[in-house]
Amino acid sequence: MRRITLLTAALALVVAPAASAKMPMVKKAKDLGITQIENCKSCHADKNTKDSLNDAGKWMMAQKAAKKATECDVAWMKEYYAKKK
Question: pTM for this structure?
Fold first, then answer.
């Protein structure tokens, strides 16, 4: 019984960081009313790597550099999608 509990706890530690790293940005986008962002692939070409960016992701990184920000802000995507109309 103790072995199963330890295995379950170890699995939770491995899975939890991966799941929590991406969903807050998608949730924030939904809260802001940015309906175009549905999942990580809205900015990333490959969901398994943070370095593979599509056009929206590259734009976001350019904004981060231009604003000299330490993190990307999902709210910036409103401007991106407004320009795409």
Answer: 0.68
